[in-house]
Amino acid sequence: ESAVLAGEKGVSVNDALAYLVMRRRGVREVYTFDKHFEKLDVDIVKE
């Protein structure tokens, strides 16, 4: 599932896996400097 998402969104398999785990646990926000998360449906906390 993460490999398919990675290909669809143009992110790494690791980022896709982290996103899928976040979604399953109900996490909507991520604190990151990784620009790839901008391609995914999450809120990025920058401060």
Automatic annotation (TrEMBL):
Sample GO molecular function, one term: RNA endonuclease activity
Gene3D superfamilies recorded: 5'-nuclease (3.40.50.1010)
Domain of life of the source: Archaea
Bilayer-spanning residue ranges: none
GO terms of biological process kind: rRNA catabolic process
Cited PANTHER family: 23S RRNA-SPECIFIC ENDONUCLEASE VAPC20 (PTHR42188)
Protein name: PIN domain-containing protein
